[in-house]
Specification:
globular; single chain; binds glutamine; Amidase signature (AS) enzymes; eleven-stranded mixed β-sheet
Length: 472
């Protein structure tokens, strides 16, 4: 089987072929590496390709030959640079952690290792996952494989670009305000933000702890399910992780809620057209479309951009030049902090630390952080009420296809890209991004994506409706 076919197989197909011995893990790894050699220098999707990749594949093949049958045995995956793999660098694409070596495995990684996965390397991202384009990396931007003048989305842009260019069969990202779903949208792959607590956050570098989730990026919805199931579960190392009994089989009402009031402004006309066509096809398959109102959803961005910097500023306080990574000497202890953090953090990270400490400061806490917390609760109530009536809420994943590198140099215009994704993080609901066709820009076809949000623990609903979208 030729390399192009091998490197673009779905995990589900590859697993089947591995089981019948039609292909080996080493074949898959070599096919991915051929694409890495061809395109990574330009795309900058991987920050590092591990030196033992072939050895991992050979070990997986040997285990299979000895009769082992783990679900992901020999499947090569790419991992975002903020998820710890023991003994490997993990820098969060920041200078401050340039030489940091992970001392333990993230729980999600441990589970994937138990399932037999092979890890190809660590992928580029916006520094500390702050961004929507992967332009904020200290190691240069990643490019979109569909059009190299455009961004892959962010912050898990390296993972999405690696997958979309046949450099991996699946990838891990993290999603605090959309960072799995946005790059999935811009690169034409599937991305899942699980229910808050479904996958342990142990070993994921914290950005906004009440928002963060690790999520899979895959070629198909079935693959997303496979990776999700391999990683989920309660973990003593994360007290917010959910007990499996939380998951109840959802009764399908075949009803889709559409908050049309959110689509009235700012959505690209071609994206909107594809969205309406997709809804129409679902209607033809027997789904009822219901207009829903989420009055507070218009505030979601404002709520998110208060709470996330607040939490991030607290989480990033640990990078003090003493405990982790970069350390610079100044003239006093305070000066040590200032020199280390001033040199180690990029401009977007510094901006958010300043915003976060501001909204948390004694004089402004009630006006900003306190208010945002209340508004978050209202938004959660509205979503929960809507999801009592419908199976899923649907919107486009992003308001536009991938934009040009450098196009959104004003941070506020970049933040607007998150308009449809942040709500699920604020409310903890699971959300899935599924490709819904392509739009043409300067003669190049760019992917567009639809987002489905379900009730807490409703991943099964997302997967079943997601599959129907793939099939239409
Ligand atoms: N784009 C959003 C932000 O910049 C989301 C980031 C994320 O999910 N990690 O905060």
């Amino acid at each position: 089987m030729n390399n192009d076919i091998l490197a673009t197989l779905s995990i589900t197909d590859a697993t089947r072929k591995l089981a019948t011995k039609e292909i080996s893990s080493l074949d898959l790894v070599r096919a991915c590496r051929a694409n890495i050699e061809r395109r990574n220098a330009t795309l900058n999707a991987y920050l590092e390709v591990f030196d033992d990749v072939e050895a991992q594949a050979i070990a997986a093949d040997t285990r299979r030959a000895m009769g082992e049958k783990q679900k992901l045995l020999g499947i090569p995956l790419a991992v975002k640079d903020n998820i710890l793999i023991e003994g490997r660098r993990a820098s969060s694409a920041s200078k401050i952690l340039e030489d940091y070596i992970a001392p333990y495995d993230a729980t999600a990684i441990k589970k994937l290792k138990d399932a037999g996965a092979v890890f190809l390397g660590r992928t580029n991202m916006d520094e500390f996952a702050m961004g929507g384009s992967t332009e904020n990396s200290a190691y240069g931007p990643t490019k979109n494989p569909h059009d190299e003048s455009r961004v892959p989305g962010g912050s898990s842009g390296g993972s999405a670009a690696a997958l979309a260019s046949g450099m991996a069969l699946g990838a891990l990202g993290s999603d605090t305000g959309g960072s799995v779903r946005e790059p999935a949208s811009f690169c034409g792959v599937v991305g899942l933000k699980p229910t808050y607590g479904a996958i342990s956050r142990s070993g994921l570098m914290a950005m906004g702890s009440s928002l963060d989730q690790i999520g899979p990026l895959t070629r198909t919805v079935a693959d997303a399910k496979l990776l999700f199931e391999a990683m989920r579960g309660q973990d003593p190392l994360d007290s917010t992780s959910l007990d499996p009994s939380f998951y109840k089989e959802g009764l399908q009402r075949k009803k889709i809620g559409v908050p049309r009031h959110l689509l009235a402004r700012g959505v690209d006309a071609d994206v909107l057209k594809l969205f309406e066509e997709t809804l129409k096809r679902l209607q033809e398959k027997g789904y009822a479309l219901v207009d829903i109102e989420l009055p507070s959803a218009g505030l979601a961005l404002a709520i998110y951009y208060i709470l996330m910097p607040a939490e991030a500023s607290t989480n990033l306080a640990r990078f003090d030049g003493v405990r982790y990574g970069l350390s610079r000497r100044g003239e006093s202890l305070f000066d040590d902090y200032a020199c280390t953090r001033g040199e180690g953090f990029g401009p977007e990270v510094r901006r958010r630390i300043m915003l976060g400490t501001y909204v948390l400061s004694a004089g402004y806490y009630d006006a900003y952080y306190g208010k945002a917390t209340q508004a978050r609760r209202t938004l959660s109530r509205e979503c929960a009420a809507a999801l009592k009536e419908v199976d899923v809420i649907m919107t486009p994943t992003t308001p536009s296809p991938a934009f040009l590198i450098g196009e959104k140099s004003d941070p506020l215009s970049m933040y607007l890209t998150d308009i449809f994704t942040v709500t699920a993080n604020l409310t903890g609901n699971p959300a899935l991004a599924v490709p819904m066709g392509e739009v043409k820009r300067t003669k190049i076809n760019l992917p567009a994506s639809i987002q489905l949000t379900a009730a807490h623990g409703g991943e099964a609903t997302l997967f079943s409706i997601g599959r129907e979208i793939e099939a239409v």
